[in-house]
Structure formats: structure tokens, C-alpha cells
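Notes to self after the call with IL:
- keep both proteins in one doc
- input above output, always
- annotate only the second one for now

Protein 1:
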Amino acid sequence: MGIEELIEGETYDVRLSARNPKGEGIGRIDDVVVFVRNAKARIGKTHKVRITKLYRTFAYAELAEPFDNSKYFIGNGGLLI
């Protein structure tokens, strides 16, 4: 799947494998790099994301799953309840 086959507003499953200095999660949909806003504490897991903006070689997305406000993740992967 290339960037031509992605559609803005559609949801896809993305495994977040890293984060950038801005705190965005980084994953891939086949060959396309996807930056996911507000996902820095969810690295290492697969999430449903909604594509918000497509560029020639990468895409921006946001989490499509509801965020559970009763739980907070901290930087080392721990969970605060």
C-alpha cells in the first residue's frame, strides 16, 4: 500500500514503534510513515488511527480509540491509576 491508497478520514491499524522529539508516535502503514499526535506513551502497541493529513511521503494521524481519562501512562511505561 502506498500513499496513493490512503484516504484522509479513514481509520487504519498502526503499530507505533518510536516517538519523535515533538512527542508524536511514529508508525508505518506498509511503506508510509505515519506521525500520530498525542500517542507518545503508547509506543510498542497497535492502535486504530484516523488519517488527518496526507503529504507526498508521509501522513499525520490521531488516535481513533477513545482515550480513557482514568488511567495515565508515564514515560517509563508505568501506569498511574
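Protein 2 (the one to annotate):
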Amino acid sequence: MAIYNLGSINIDLLYQVPHLPVPGETLAAQSYAQGLGGKGANMSVAAARAAARVLHIGAVGADGRWAVERLLEYGVDTKHIAEIPGVTGHAIISVDEMGENSIILWAGANALIGTDQIGRALTEANTGDTLMMQNETTGQLDAARMASKLGLKVVYAAAPFDANAVRPLLPFIDLLVLNQIEANQLEAEIGQSLKDLEISDIIVTLGGDGCRWYANSNGQVSNFDAVKVEAIDTTGAGDTFTGYVVAALDRGMGMEQAIGLASQAGALMVTRLGTADVIPDLKEVQDAKRG
């Protein structure tokens, strides 16, 4: 099977700071690095490193050619990434000494992905393949409609949360992944609890407290503990978790097993400084899980 990921590609500008800046404060960074990022790119790399076949649907400017090459090096199929006029999306990330972060995003090319481009990519998909999406690009609703007609499983990570983007997608989603804040926002927006939604599976990530799985097809709710580690950077941990869950399901694992593997991957991720470039591969995750 294969995973088609309609996702953002960002150039991450990462700064380590003694604390997150407050309004009006000028703060000297302790270190600086540039790397590959974006929720979409992170999830593609995570799924590829979890041994899935991943095809990324996205866009960059000429300044992002290196990012496409980096995705290819990490095992992601890049033939559906367009180079368009303008600049590649980027993120300015500050990480404090407790591992917490503050992020400023500029969408750039991520906001210029066309429906035709998405359609050309999905016409290659087979029934049973997966479409994965986030909220850092254009075209999610069109993609979800196409995927549903083609018999693909639709996975949606509802971040950054936007109620106007999420609501029309709900009828097409098979697996919804969101954090506790996003879950609260969604329930307030639609006036329903997650367990009452007509979505087969919903995973709510709870940070250091693990995650909760709503198996709405049978009405069960299961809680999973987090793997305890010393965090130095939480950036990209949720994306790593999601990519690993989707890859594991694509490879035929059950949800409980997929969540266990993804939790270990997310735990390893927060012990590393960076985003897509430091996502652990399957062997590292399995070794850590056995250890």
C-alpha cells in the first residue's frame, strides 16, 4: 500500500533561547540551525522512516530545491512536489531550556498548491491507499473528496486548528488526529463530543500524559501512557507520532500496536533538537522499545 501526503514543506530556522521571548523583549539566541520542516514534511519523513511507501504532494520555491532533495534522501517519493514562483514556506522556531517552543509560520508555496496537481497525484493511488493531510496547505477539501471517491482512507491531523477548515472535512475523515486543545476547540465549535462524531477513529494526543483513542466504530475509549523521557525539544514530536501511526496502520498493524510504536518514536523525538532531519528510523524505535 502507499501513503499520499498533501503536506507543507518548510525551511525551519531554529533558535535555542534561555526562555521564550515576551512582548517587547530582545533576546540573544544560544544557537542557530536551519533544517527541513513543516508538519507535512515531518509526517512524510516519519512515515517513510517507519517503513511505509510515501508520496508527498506539495510545493516549494526555487529556494527550497534542497528540501526536496532532502526528502528524497529520507525515502520520500517527491515526484508530486511542484516548484513554483515565489518562496518556500518557512518557520521561525524558538526552543527554551525546558523544551517548549514558540513558532512563527510563513506559508509561502504551501498556500499555492493547485487542485489539478492534487488530482494528478491521486489518480495514481489504489483503493486501500491512504491520504494524509494537515492544515498548512491549500486543497484539503478537494483532496478529501477525491480520495473518498477513489476508496482511499483519509487521515487528517487538524493542526494548526481552524474550525472553518475542519468542519467541511468531517464527513470524509476515517482517522482524525488532534491534541487536547484542538479537541476542545472542535467540540466547542460543532457542539458535539468526539465520541459522537461519525469518524471511525480519533486520537487525541496529550503530550507528556500520552494519548486517548476513540474507537467510535464500537464505542470504546482507550488511554495510552506516554513513554517517559527527558525532553529537550518538543518540536515535531506530534508529527512524528502521527506519521508512525499512519505508517503502522498502512503496514497492517492494529491500532493499539501502532500507537505503542508511535509513542516510542515520539518519545525519542523529544530527546533531539530539530525537526524532520532528526526523526528516528524504525530500527531505532524498535531497539528503544525493546530496551
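Annotation: The radius of gyration is 18 Å. The first strand starts at residue 3 and ends at 6.
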